[in-house]
Each structure stands twice: as C-alpha cells, then as structure tokens.
Amino acid sequence: MAAALSRALKLPGKKGSELGEYDPLTQADSEDESEEDDLVLNYPRNGLGRGNCMGTGTLELRGSRTGRLVGDEDEAEEDDDEWRERLPGKKRQEREEKGMQYWSQRETNRDEGVEDGGVLGASGGPGLSVSASADPDGKKAKVRGAIRAAFFLVPLVCAMLVVLLCAFLVPCQHGELDKRPQWEKELGDHVGGVTPPPLALWDVDNDSVEDVLIGVTQKSNNTHLSSSAGNNKEYSVVALSAFSGEVLWRRALREPVESIQCGLQYEAQPSPLPAGGAALRALPNSAIPLSALRDRASGPVCLLIESAHLTAVNGTTGKKLWSVAPGEIQSQAVSLPDLQGDSVPDLLIATLPADQVSDLSLLLLSGLTGAMLGHPVTFNLTTFNVSGKLIGPLFHETQLGAYYILFGLGTVEAVSLGDIYTRATGKTPISPGLRLKEPGWEKLRKTNSSLIHISSGTEQVEFLVPLVAGLCNNHNSLDSISNLNSSRSDWVLVCGKLSSKLSVLREKDAHTEWTLTSSAIHSRPAPGQFNDDGIPDLLIQKSGAPRMRKVQVVDGASGRSLWETEFICPRLDLEGTSIMTSGQSAFLFWAGDPVSPPKNLTKTTVAPGAVQAMPVIRKLFMLHPAYPTILLELASTTDTILTAAVSYQEPQKDASYITVSSRPTSGLGPGSRVVKSMSLRAAITAGQIVRLGESSTAGVPVRPGVFEINKFFRRLTFKNN
After folding, report:
1. Which of 113, 206, 262, 276 is most exposed, with minimal Cβ within 10 Å?
2. C-alpha to C-alpha distances, 271 to 277, 322, 345, 364, 386, nearest whole angstrom
3. Region labeled Disordered — which residues (predicted)?
4. pLDDT tens-place string over residues 579-593
C-alpha cells in the first residue's frame, strides 16, 4: 500500500526509484511525454504485444529489460492490480482503448514492412523497423548495384566465350599440318644414272616448315636448244612446298647443279665499315647497287653451285641476285664470319688452280655481291698424298675463338683463316678472330709451312664429321646457327676403304681421343645421343658377312659398341639420320630384314642365282635407346633411295622424312625421279614392331609389351638441334 501511494505522488513523466518503471496513472495524464514512448516503455508492464506479435526482437527486449525485474515481479504485480481497481473505469477503459489502437496500427505497419522487405532495428524494437516502400534511396542503391554488377559480369562472360572459341573452335594457322597426308612428286624421267641429286631444305615460303630444293636433269624437248647446247639435256632447280609438294618455283641452269645451299641472310641496312674496309667495299665487278641487292633479297638466299658457276638466288622467288665464274669449283661453299663489315657472311670455295702446278686453291668471295676478295690462295698438297678424296673445306672456331679452315686431299690439313685473308688481300686482318692463334694447333705446324697436319697414318681419309648430334640433317645449311653448332666441337675421322679406322680427334690439340678398327664403313657416321653421358654417339653402317650389312652404335666417349645388329644388305649406301627427342636421339637408317627375323615372319629361301633377279625390299627402321631390343619399321619400298633428309615442323613438334628415289619404268628408258615426304609421327602410328635378339644390346631386364611400346613411340616429339 505504501509503495502504491509513493508512486501516486511522483511527478508526471519522471522515473521512479524502481528500475526504469513509470507510473501508469501519471503517464496517462501527462501532456509533456509522447504517448508512443509511454506505451513502448510500459509494454513489459502492461503486457501488450506479448506472444508472437513482436517477434524475436520483442523477446530479446523482454529478456533484457524485464530480466532485471524478475525478482520483484510478483510483488509489483499485486500492488498494480490493487491500484488499477481504484482507478475510475472510464479512464482505464480509454487508456486501454488507446493502447489497443496504437498497437494494432503498429502491428499493421510492421506487417507491411516485412512484406516490403523491411527489417527490424538492431535492438529488435518495433519502433526501429524500416519499410522499403518508405525508402526511395534504398531502391536507387539497389538499382545502381545491379547495373554495376551487370557492367562487370557481361564483359567477363564475353571474354571467356572468346577464349573458349579461339581455343577449341577456331583452327590455328598450322593446324592443318598435323593432318597433312604424305605426298610424292614425280619430276619426270631422269638422265644421268643413279647419282644422288643435290638436295637442300629451307623455309622459302615463310610457313615455318622447311621446303625442298632439288636439282633436276631431264631430257630436253627443245630440239633447237639441244643442238645449240651440244646435248639433249635440260638442267634446273625446283623448289617444292613441304606442305603439298607443289612447285613453288623452277629455275633453268646452263649446267647440272652439283650443290644447293641455303641460309644466307641480307640485313635491311648496311652496317658501318671498320677502318680499312672501304677498299674491299668498292667492288668494281658488281654492277648492281648494294641497296638494290638487299631489296631483292628480302628473304633467304640460296647458292646454286655448278661446275664453273656460282649463282645466288632469292629463296622465295628463285630470281637471280648475282652470278660469278670463279673457275672449276671443287667443293661446297663455306660460310665465314663477316670479313668486310657489311653484315653479310662471306664465302670460301675450293677450286682447281689455273697454273696446273698446285693442287688446290681457296678463294674468298663476298657474300653480298659474289665478287672475289683478293686473289686465289694456292696450296701444294702432294707432299702428303698424291691422290685422294677432297676433304672439306670446313670452317672451325676453336675454344679460344681462333678461326681455321680444315681441308685436304685424302688428308686433313688446317690453315688459319687470317693467313688466307692476308695472302689473298695483302692486308692485315681486322677481326680479332682472324688474328688469334690456337697454341695447341700451332705446335703441329711444319717449319716454313702455313699448313698444320691434323690427320696421322697412311690410310686415306674418307669422312670428316663434326661430333655434333643431328648435324647430318643440315650439313648443307649456311646459316650462322648451324655453323656455330658445328664449330668448337671434336671431330670424327674415318680412314680407309677396305677396312676402316674410326677415331675422334680432340678439338683443343687435334690429338686422337680413341680409335676403333672395323670393316669398311660405307657412309658418313650419324652423330646422336644414344646414352646419357652428354657426348654424341655414332651410328655407322659397315660391311658384314656376304650380302649382309651391320649397323652399329659406337660410344662417342670411348669407342665401345653400344648396339649392333646385322641385316640383309639393301644394296644401298645411304647415310643414317639422328633426330633429337626428349633428351635422347632416335636413329633412322635403311636396311633389309634383320638376320634373326621374328618368329611370326616367314623367311623365304631362294636359289643363289635368283638373288640378283629378285627386287630388293628396302625398309626404313627407327631405333630408340629406350627400347634397344626392338625396331620400328616405318616404310618399305623397292625404289632405289638416292638421298634423304629430315625437315622439322617446330610448332607441331613433328618432322618429315624427305627422300629422293629412282623408280624403274617400263622398257629400257631412264628411271623416274620421285620426291616423297612422310610425317614421322604418322609413320610411327602405322609402323610395325620388329623384335631383335637379346644379344643386340646388354642390360635389358624385361621384354617390353606391345602396348607399352606403342604408347611410348606415339608420344614421341621431335625438335631441331
């Protein structure tokens, strides 16, 4: 009773001593406080909005505010009931009606706010809920956010679609090269026997694939031309597309071409000449301005070497750039460092001397105009060997950077390029490489002689090959990269005809590293990586038993045999080829069937007199060091293969095997000359596995399965060295 009386005496709108309570009587009569605040604050006491009308926010409010009054709730409730009973009925009824109207209106507004996406305030009170319909700025913000998201997502989706379209739907420029079939091109009946024709590979149509250039000799159909020339033959050079075999250009020649070399590059602008080069630059024999030569040679330059003429042509069009007649040419051209300062490599060739006394002449030519640099430098080589096969000339750069030329007649001699330059021009060499000397080589120089004797022994030298893997594929190239790869390396020497000595000469001092004596070696050794010691190994083909041919791989570091197998002789002397794969080389060579054929093959026996009458089947085999007990047969033919080379396609990591063969025709006429291209990866897919005896190599633990072999070979990729 005392508590109720004390609350009755409180001022309107003022808080009492109880925790946050307001007197309901004084609050109803007060004009200073708002009715909304009164009802909100008295909600826990009056019990309005209980249950689920206020949602979770109300429950939190109740839990937070009324929780402090739990202790005295019962006591206060008893006093309130007694106090309300004393109030006049009308006032109490009006207050309750006002409260019900207010809360019904608040509940309606709250429901509309929920439907419009409104949210309760942080405290959960109903007075803090916001209606989306009453907030136009919120709608604008949502619209702006949607627009920004659209501007970000639409370009992103478009970019992804473009990437997917380019990656999977639009074919690449070289995509058709993967599907190209093998092709062959008949160049007509050939006159001149089965002499290997000159062959060169170079990209002349700028499609990233090496095209084919070949010399052709045919019977002339022009009677007037034949009678005036004194023979009935026509000579030409043909450029064939590596993609389809179609003729890109054809150039007629006065004489049969003996060698084709490509790779010279003319710079767009001439470089300034060093001191002393102006005299060499003034080339009175050249009637064509230097700028015109550069404009006309806007691409690779190819050299066509005839017996007495040297002609430079534009590799893309076949048009002549210049032509010289230096005499009786005996060798291919050698690409030298720039001797004149015109940014074009210069050339060296071997010719027969005009005095008929000396044995050989070395002649320097300008790579830009073909003009002679000085006069020929003659050498007398009969002191070492009266008659022999011409070796070289070859360019060699030592580890110190000194320049030497290797050449000889049945021997190997070396002469400093600086000495040749001085004797030819009478001038002091300008380039540092021309002035340097290699101490290890100079010790071998004879007194009062400019020659350094490299080879030793009485046997004639048959082959001189740089010990560089894959070099056999581009030995006709004149580009600087090939020359750099073939330089600064050891050298492979093959001496003797009836029996051969295979040896390796050290580059630093020209001393013999090792020597292997074997039966006669019929073709140039093919360097390649068979083991993993980093030193190129050698594939050689030599005589075996009667009508047999032995193919052997020799360790380049020691000379020991790594692999060997005997085959039926294919009656063919064609050098092997090595192609780099991932870390090791794949070796290609032509042969007959292995002496120990697989059990599932039937070997036919014929009478000895009928052997010559039967056509010889020649097969192209691939040997890979990963599976030395098997061979992959890629092709077979009865044609006589005259020469072969490998053309690389770097984008596809593939290679084509190019062959030039003589195909017999009906009657007694000359055979037809056929050029054929074969994709190696396609040939591997259709190749046949030939198993060899376990004695062909040592250390093979498990006999590989067919599935494993096919999987390995079909995943092979090829790359240029």
Report:
1. 206
2. 12, 21, 13, 20, 45
3. 1-112
4. 988 889 999 999 999
DSSP state of 246: -
Q: Which of 66, 50, 70, 47 is nearest to 58 (CA)?
A: 50
Q: How far apart are CA 180 and CA 178, in angstroms?
A: 6
Angle at which helices 55-65 and 35-46 cross, to 10°: 70
> CA gyration radius for the chain?
48
Residue pLDDT, tens place only, 592-625:
998 864 444 434 343 444 444 455 789 999 999 9
Q: Map residue 607 onto helix, strand or coil.
A: coil
pTM for the model stands at 0.71
Q: What is the DSSP letter of 109?
A: H
Evaluate whether 124 touches 65 at the Cβ level (below 8 Å): no
Q: Please give the full DSSP string across 150-170, using - where no structure is assigned.
A: HHHHHHHHHHHHHHHIIIIIS
d(CA 414, CA 349): 15
Task: Calculate the alpha carbon distances from 436 to 222, 231, 248, 399, 442 in Å.
Answer: 56, 50, 44, 11, 11
What SS3 class is residue 717?
coil
543, amino acid identity:
S
By the 8 A CB rule, do 217 and 192 touch? Answer: yes
Q: CA 39, CA 35: separation in Å to the nearest integer?
A: 6
User: Encoding tokens for residue 191?
Assistant: 């006159």
- Tokens 């060296």, residue located: 348
Residues 370-387: tens digit of each pLDDT: 999 999 999 987 655 546
- Give the tokens for residue 404: 């030497």
> According to the model, what pLDDT value does residue 66 have?
42
Contact assessment for residue 399 and residue 507, using Cβ atoms and an 8 Å cutoff: yes
Minimal CA–CA distance to 475: which of 256, 676, 200? 200
pLDDT in tens, 388-442: 789 989 999 988 889 999 999 888 999 999 999 999 999 888 788 888 999 888 8
d(CA 386, CA 375): 25
Asked if residues 413 and 453 have their Cβ atoms less than 8 Å apart, the reply is yes
Strands (E), 431-511: 452-453, 461-466, 491-495, 499-505
Highest mean pLDDT among 66-75, 321-330, 542-551: 321-330
Give me the residues paired with residue 310 across strands: 305, 324
CA atoms within 13 A on the CB side of 670: 17
Letter string b/e over residues 441-470, b meaning 16 or more CB atoms within 10 A of that residue's CB = beebbeeeeebbbbbbeebbbbbbbbbbbb
The C-alpha angle 552, 558, 564, rounded to 5 degrees, equals 15
Taken in order 38, 44, 50, 55, is the CA torsion positive or negative?
positive
pLDDT in tens, 85-111: 554 454 555 555 655 665 565 555 555
* Burial profile 407-424: b = 16 or more Cβ within 10 angstroms, e = fewer: bbbbbbbbbbbbbbbbbb
Among candidate residues 384, 381, 371, 382, the one with its CA nearest the CA of residue 424: 371
- Is 625 within 8 Å of 530 (Cβ atoms)? yes
List, for residues 495-531, the tens digit of each pLDDT value. 988 889 999 999 888 889 999 999 999 899 999 999 9
Instruction: Provide the phi-psi class of 191: left if phi over 0, else alpha when psi is between -120 and 50, else beta.
Output: beta
Q: Beta-carbon neighbour count of residue 339 at 10 Å?
A: 25
The pair of structure tokens assigned to 160 is: 């992804």
Name the E strands within 534-653: 537-543, 548-554, 561-568, 577-580, 585-591, 618-623, 630-637, 640-649
Q: What's the rounded Cα separation, in Å, for the pair 667 and 661? A: 18
Structure tokens at 522: 């019929």
- Report how far apart, in Å, the C-alpha atoms of 562 and of each of 469, 470, 557 are: 16, 18, 11
